Amino acid sequence: xxxxxxxxxxxxxxxxxxxxxxxxxxxxxxxxxxxxxxxxxxxxxxxxxxxxxxxxxxxxxxxxxxxxxxxxxxxxxxxxxxxxxxxxxxxxxxxxxxxxxxxxxxxxxxxxxxxxxxxxxxxxxxxxxxxxxxxxxxxxxxxxxxxxxxxxxxxxxxxxxxxxxxxxxxxxxxx
Length: 175
Fold this sequence. Notes:
Elements: E1 2-7, H1 19-27, E2 32-36, E3 42-46, H2 51-66, E4 72-75, H3 77-85, E5 99-106, H4 112-119, E6 126-131, E7 134-140, H5 150-157, E8 161-165, H6 166-174
Antiparallel strand pairs: 1-3, 1-4, 2-3, 5-7, 5-8, 6-7
Helix pairs in contact: 3-6
């Protein structure tokens, strides 16, 4: 089965990992056809096994090898394509000037209370939408004008997440 792994804490916050080293670490687990996509913790590979088991196996190996926790979120190519194509904010062009759209990947869908709490925080610069295991964050204006971050969204939802720009998701889906 083909998967895309979205790894949190790769090449951010002082945690620098060269992509050839990351590929070798994942190949050590028996994953095949391992390829990285941009240097921000996106890895495409083939493997047998259940998604949750693979996530845990990757997380344990990377923590042991790198010395810090690396939350791992797996998606199939079809799931990546669906996440990239999802129209979370109908009528708004996510490619328009001054607009940014981010996709947060979760391990499971958040409960209704967490969804309501996050969506209620919509404001002048920020809007949120949750669809399954993905959080969509629409930002109007520069990042410096928002009070939100991936970490703050994680706290609101009460679960780990990693965030990608929708352009990255589209490019991964095209692969």
